[in-house]
Amino acid sequence: QVQVVESGGGLVQVGESLELSCEASESSASPYTMAWYRQAPGKLRELVASITSAGTALYGDFAKGRFSISNPYIHFVYLRMNSLKPDDTAVYYCKFQTWVRSVAVDYWGKGTLVTVSS
Q1: Alpha-carbon distance 80 to 95, whole Å?
Q2: d(CA 107, CA 97)
Q3: 88: helix, coil or strand?
Q4: Can you give the pLDDT at residue 37?
Q5: What pLDDT is attached to residue 46?
Q6: pLDDT at residue 26 above 90?
Q7: pLDDT (tens digit, 9 = 90+) per residue, 51-101?
Q8: CA-to-CA separations, 95 to 5, 14, 33, 39, in angstroms, rounded
Q9: Of the candidates 7, 29, 9, which has an alpha carbon nearest to the alpha carbon of residue 75?
């Protein structure tokens, strides 16, 4: 069982920056994708950003230009969030995705709360 652990959430003011990190306990070197999702109260979970082990990154429209995902070490990602807004307040979840016999298997962290105060 792969464990996924997020860290770095907290309370910030509008316009400030915050960096989240996530590490998966996977031991193999197989291809993978790691992603950040977020869920605000009363809203559906949405994709923030994802990155493959080959380095291909994707962003949600709201994240383009403000957020940056990086994969400096195997099974470890950062999410840098700049110019934060109150609408960015949410629980941020990290997902580790790998493939077993060509079937995608997802592992989720418990989430870390980001609160942006005005």
Answers
A1: 16
A2: 6
A3: helix
A4: 98
A5: 98
A6: no
A7: 999 999 999 999 999 999 999 989 999 999 999 999 999 999 999 999 988
A8: 9, 26, 8, 13
A9: 29
Q: Nearest-5° angle of CA 83, CA 86, CA 91?
A: 100
Rounded Cα–Cα distance for residues 71 and 65 (Å): 18
| 95, 107 Cβ separation under 8 angstroms | yes
At residue 35, φ and ψ (nearest 5 deg) are -145, 155
Look up residue 91 and give its DSSP letter.
E
What is the rounded distance in angstroms from the CA atom of residue 116 to the CA atom of residue 82?
Answer: 11
In whole numbers, what is the pLDDT of the chain averaged over residues?
A: 96
User: Cα–Cα distance between 41 and 24 in angstroms, integer?
Assistant: 26
Q: What is the pLDDT of residue 100?
A: 87
Provide the token pair at 72. Answer: 């400096």
